[in-house]
Specification:
338 residues; alpha/beta; seven-stranded mixed sheet; 9 strands; 45% helix; 16% strand
Amino acid sequence: MTQTTSPSPLLFFDTAFAIQRTCSIRAAVDLEVFTAIKEGHTTTSALADRCNASERGMRMLVDYLVMLGFLTKSDNTYALTQDSEVFLVKTSPAYLGGTLEFLLSPTLFESFCDLTEAVRKGGTMLPDQGTIAEEHPEWVTFAREMVPMMVGPAKWIAEHLVTTGGTIRKALDVAAGHGIFGVEIAKRFPAAEVTAVDWPNVLTVARGNADAASLGDRYNTIAGSAFDVDFGEGYDLVLLTNFLHHFAIPECEDFLRKVRASMAPGSRVITLEFVPNDDRISPASADFALIMLVTTPGGDAYTFKEWDAMFQNAGFGRSELLAVPNSKEHIIITHQSS
């Protein structure tokens, strides 16, 4: 006998109330709840005093955080989970709380309020081309706040290049942002010079991170639009990290032709992206495609087949896809054609 499942409205209500989850983690980070618990403030009254909040409000917030799985509770005492201790305590080197300044910025957060119209239009409702507008201030926020989220993939890419052999002497970091990808390459390849390209207001952040790594004159910058500036030539590595997804396929292919013209024979491109399977749903990338819909005129989450075709149409050779550990992203390694 076949059993049938009764219709349930639970998914609808969970989704409709998902904003509670977003706003609760924002409040907990703002109030430094996780840091306070790490310091030993483990009751609602102690947390209220430490976080300058009402005891009633604190009780309701931390109970909800327990329900979400960010905290545990026993005999009215709260404790951190392993993940919360690593990623949400301000003194942790892996602290991610600061990334909310970008992830929940007005540009991104409010864009989803216009999702209905963005779907109708097929692109962002933001003015001036959305987040691809010239010197958009959002990218300064990104550069300042997203290093903790990106340092793991950056270190992994650099280590992968070390273990797969070859020498890197001249690397181009396109839309460098915080610059951490180029910085990690320079740290692992002592003979390498890195040239970072981005808007001038963003490059101040990248330059600061390069200085903190004591890269000196091995770190150079080119200010301006990556589509317009002269890259120079002779690069044996080009980094395209979280950049091309902002643009439609014809723009990507035109840009890749420009990149190819700047590269030395036998060189490689490393592209870091959210790459869905052909179904465009798994691994979870449909959410990223929606971000591109509400913030850009023509960006998308492209499949590997689409990336491979773009590179081939731009004159490149073979590409390979690798998953980045502990990340939703992949790297595409593309070789310069002979």
